[in-house]
Amino acid sequence: RTAPLGSLTIPGPLYSVRVLQAGYSSPNPDGSCRADGSVTLVWGGPLTVLVDTGGPWLRPQLPGLLASQGVSPSDVTHVIVTHGHSDHAGNLNLFPEATLLLGFDLSRGRGLYLPHGLASGAALELHPGHLRVTPTPGHTRAHVSLVALGTTLGTVAVAGDAFEHGEDEEEWAALSEDPPEQRRSRQALVATADVIVPGHGEPFRVVREWGQ
């Protein structure tokens, strides 16, 4: 893709990011909680990537959410599930032909599992220079985030529950398997991303102090 600029032609962004469902979490007086995870589509280049699939209760709506962007379940080439909780991994059967990353398990087709270095801290390059999966352990030990570079919003991190929402500083540690590790993951995402899509809230822009 290109965008004209006077007599020059400069590359335009390859991938777009659209939050199909912003996640939510609402506690009830009896201690229960009604929640579902954010569902995000990254498309426009050679890969069509869905990050998290919501809970199984979203299944009737998910094909329509994809169709609103001109995408069918069979168009999805990769499904990245940030972690294995039911509100993020509830609809994998809609995408039997997609390459699937669930936490640190990477599979393709009929159960072919592929090697990678996520568990040892190495990123997985889905489309070098454009899309990468980075390990962001803490909320669960096999938690990942998708980082999309060079979008119209800059670098977008689809962060699962590394961030619950944009104002979660007093909340996230109580939900974490490893709070010190998750704090490091959060700091790494904030250091690189311009926009973060959290697991249970609206996307938010990262604001840095002058000189940072």
From TrEMBL:
Catalytic activity: a ribonucleotidyl-ribonucleotide-RNA + H2O = a 3'-end ribonucleotide-RNA + a 5'-end 5'-phospho-ribonucleoside-RNA + H(+)
SUPFAM superfamilies: Metallo-hydrolase/oxidoreductase
Main location: cytoplasm
Source taxon at top rank: Eukaryota
GO CC list: cytosol
Pfam families: Lactamase_B
Residue ranges constituting the Metallo-beta-lactamase domain according to the UniProt record: 36-200
Transmembrane segment boundaries: none
Task of the protein: Endoribonuclease that catalyzes the hydrolysis of histone-coding pre-mRNA 3'-end. Involved in histone pre-mRNA processing during the S-phase of the cell cycle, which is required for entering/progressing through S-phase. Cleaves histone pre-mRNA at a major and a minor cleavage site after the 5'-ACCCA-3' and the 5'-ACCCACA-3' sequence, respectively, and located downstream of the stem-loop. May require the presence of the HDE element located at the histone pre-RNA 3'-end to avoid non-specific cleavage.
Quaternary assembly: Homodimer.
Family: Belongs to the metallo-beta-lactamase superfamily. Glyoxalase II family.
Name of protein: Metallo-beta-lactamase domain-containing protein 1
Species per Swiss-Prot/TrEMBL record: Irena cyanogastra (Philippine fairy-bluebird)
Taxonomic placement: Eukaryota, Metazoa, Chordata, Craniata, Vertebrata
Gene: Mblac1
